[in-house]
Amino acid sequence: MLIALAAATPFGIVPAARAFAHPAWLLWGIGVGVCSSVIPYVTDQLAMARLPRATFSLMLALLPAAATVIGLIVLGQVPTLCELAGIALVIAGVAVHRDRPGRDGEPATASQQTAESQAQSRGHRPDPTSSLVRLIDLRNSTPDR
Fold first, then answer.
1. How far is CA 73 from CA 61, 63, 65, 89, 93, in A?
2. Number of H helices and number of E strands within the chain?
3. If DSSP states are collapsed to H, E and C, what string results for 76-119?
4. Cα 112 to chain center, whole Å?
5. pTM score > 0.70 for this model?
6. Phi and psi, residue 38, nearest 5°
7. Contact in structure between 59 and 48 (CB atoms under 8 Å)
8. In the predicted model, what is the mean pLDDT of residues 2-27?
């Protein structure tokens, strides 16, 4: 962002100077900046902390498809077959992906993944004993054969 600021400022400062004289235009510019970057970033962080990894990745894979539909409806941009194939491959790849099992032979449950991601987003380091406790719980909960 800083490099873009340094590169674009010499070319854009003179044409943009009129906007700094109009408070309404300045507020519109701030609104566009907040709506286009801050709100999506915050909602992504909130979703990442609350959703299982597989669900979050599928939702991210659906973003290009949603953008394509909006571009078609609002802007009249018709995607090429190559673009549609790329979108379909991304969605299919995420949809068929399976997590590798953990060391204990089973993937972590969604609630365990969510709790760990919430702790990490708050700046807490994961407790090294939590994996051991989960492993012991899994071994105790499975019936012996």
1. 20, 15, 12, 22, 26
2. 7, 0
3. CCCCCHHHHHHHHHHHHHHHHCCCCCCCCCCCCCHHHHHHHHHH
4. 19
5. no
6. -70, -50
7. no
8. 88
